[in-house]
Amino acid sequence: MGVLSEFVSVVVSDGSRDAGLAMLLLSRPPTNAMTRQVYREIVAAADELGRRDDVAAVIVFGGHEIFSAGDDPGELGTLTPQEAEAADRVRRAAVDAVAAIPKPTVAAITGYALGAGLTLALAADWRVAGDNVKFGATEILAGLVPGGGGMARLARAAGASKAKELVFSGRFFDAEEALALGLVDEMVAPDDVYDAAAAWARRFLDGPAHALAAAKAGIDSVFDAVFDPEPGDD
Fold it and tell me: Measured by CB atoms within 10 angstroms of the end CB, which terminus of the chain is less buried, N or C?
């Protein structure tokens, strides 16, 4: 286990069965609320995972209790306008860094995935959620809009009209609705989330790394050409 920083760790399996399986682990109890520091640590972790030759697939995990409740409201309330702009840039950098990991990635979602937590989950290639998870694009409740590419990723997965309804209302929705919308790809019992994510990732541990990276980049480029960057995300 390689601890990068205070809240984000890179964990690489050393077992023969899971050789090449790694985890980007968020650990900021009690809710894995995101701060500028957490975002910077996510960037560093994603960059490390992308470079390491002993990593073939990645699980993005917030622990068995909660994936992430989104941005830390305590920090948001203290930011000057200039700091808020910088925070949005580092949020986008973190989400983009996870999306750009040149290996298959799966988000293992437990508890809640709200606001920026939902955006981070959408940056993974595949998403597994417990059947009790609550989701929400909740930024509007604080007078904000999803940053970090959140609106584009929602629209990409759910379609424009449904993305607007979710963003306009900021409402919570359950895992069954998330599955129907295409925001998650698999729904399992809460205790099985990590194991289901690992089972998905294991399929690619012995795959051709360069071809997988090229395939991922090629598919992502199609969507990047359709969904323009959001205002303020440049």
Answer: C
**Do 98 and 61 form a contact (C-beta atoms < 8 A)?**
no
Going from the C-alpha of 73 to that of each of 42, 112, 142, the distances in angstroms are: 19, 16, 9
Report DSSP state, residue 103.
S
Beta strands in 163-229 (DSSP E): 172-174, 186-188
3-class DSSP assignment, residue 126: strand
Task: Say which residue the tokens 């012995």 belong to.
Answer: 206
Tens-digit pLDDT profile for residues 137-196: 999 999 989 988 999 999 999 999 999 999 999 999 999 999 999 999 999 999 999 999
Q: Who wins on pLDDT, 230 or 182? A: 182
- Distance, in Å, from the CA atom of 106 to the CA atom of 227, rounded to the nearest integer, reads 22
Strand residues in 67-210 grouped as ranges (E): 105-109, 112-114, 126-130, 134-136, 172-174, 186-188
- Summarised one tens digit per residue, pLDDT across range 16-43 is 779 999 999 999 999 999 999 999 999 9
- Cα 138 to Cα 128: distance, rounded to the nearest angstrom: 20
200 three-state secondary structure: helix
pTM to 2 decimals?
A: 0.93
- Burial, 161: exposed, middle or buried (Cβ in 10 Å; 0-12, 13-18, 19+)? exposed
Q: Judge whether residue 203 has pLDDT over 60.
A: yes
DSSP 123: T
